[in-house]
Amino acid sequence: MKRILLLLTIFLSLAGCAASNDRSAASGKTLDIYFMDMAGGASTLIVTPLGESVLIDTGSLEPKHRDADRIERACKHAGLEQIDCLVTTHFDIDHYGGIYELSRRIPIKRFIDSDTPPARYDKRQAGETLSPLYEQATKGKTSLLEASEDIPLKNSGKGPKIRLHCVASQKKIEGFSGDIDAPVEGFEIRKPDTSNNAYSITLVLTYGDFKFFAGGDITWNVEHHLAHPVNRIGKVDLYQVTHHGLDLSNNTILLKALAPTVAVAMNGPRKGIQPRTFKDLNALPSLKALYTIHYNTQYGDQGNPPAEFIANREDPSRGEYIKASVNPDKKTFTIQTGPEGKKKTYPIRP
Ligand SMILES: [Zn+2]
Fold this sequence. Notes:
Layout: H1 2-15, E1 31-35, E2 44-47, E3 53-56, H2 66-77, E4 85-88, H3 93-96, H4 99-105, E5 111-113, H5 127-138, E6 143-144, E7 150-151, E8 162-169, E9 172-173, E10 202-207, E11 210-214, H6 220-227, E12 238-240, H7 252-258, E13 262-265, H8 275-282, E14 289-292, E15 322-327, E16 332-337, E17 344-347
Parallel strand pairs: 3-4, 4-5, 5-6, 11-12, 12-13, 13-14
Antiparallel strand pairs: 1-2, 1-15, 2-3, 7-8, 8-9, 8-10, 10-11, 15-16, 16-17
The structure holds zinc ion (ZN).
The site of zinc ion has 7 residues, from helix 3.
């Protein structure tokens, strides 16, 4: 009997994200990605054509409930009654601050995170306040995601395959066993990043030919080894601008290797999309559009995309998301700023 129970437990935990509500009959066939306005923090919601959901990060704790409100609203727009998987890329306050409040509003079925030695929660990053809330929300049941692992997602068996794959986590990279911070002849390697950022979970989502890169807040040296000496990811259609667009991330050689068609930055009114990153992104021959959540008031029109590509250009407190919808049958994806924004369509790279 014990053995049967054990096997059942293993089966249920392996089933993980696959045990979820199935809205396939009700939904269209698009894969949807919501980049939410966390005012300089991050939260990205992925909803598959079968209605499975993966939320990457939960924004900030303060101001009270703002980010949980916004995530809950996006979940409602997506027709979700639960979040199947919540991935916390790393333990910084702008990435796991909203978890407790969110967990009180919508069931979260599985928790996945990274780890940061020597301490799981960085005290400088309000770990004393947030870590008990994280433990309460997760009830201590979390699993580590390592580089080269998948987050299992359901496939219908018909149509293109969907896959969510981890290429870096805990400062380790799939296919690379060397020292990430060791000098590399002919390239700029920066001094070791011992902050939580370098330990972020980095995910690649594919759906047929469509490819999306989401690197949390990984920094320069980790990015280098994703792109060099071999491009471990290939070219992508959609790039979540790493680390809100800060210049300590978004290594030029990775941007060139990924060669995105569209980039989306979860920046804030005074955070992110710094000048070097802005310049490097705009210099990419592949890039058709850069979208941002906010107009960064520090850099003026020269350092921001045109108004139609900024989700909260008129009113920074509106909290509008940017939504990508992927239709592999049409070989296109659309981007929309806010639920009422005009949609623009981009081709999926063959
Ligand atoms: Zn961040």
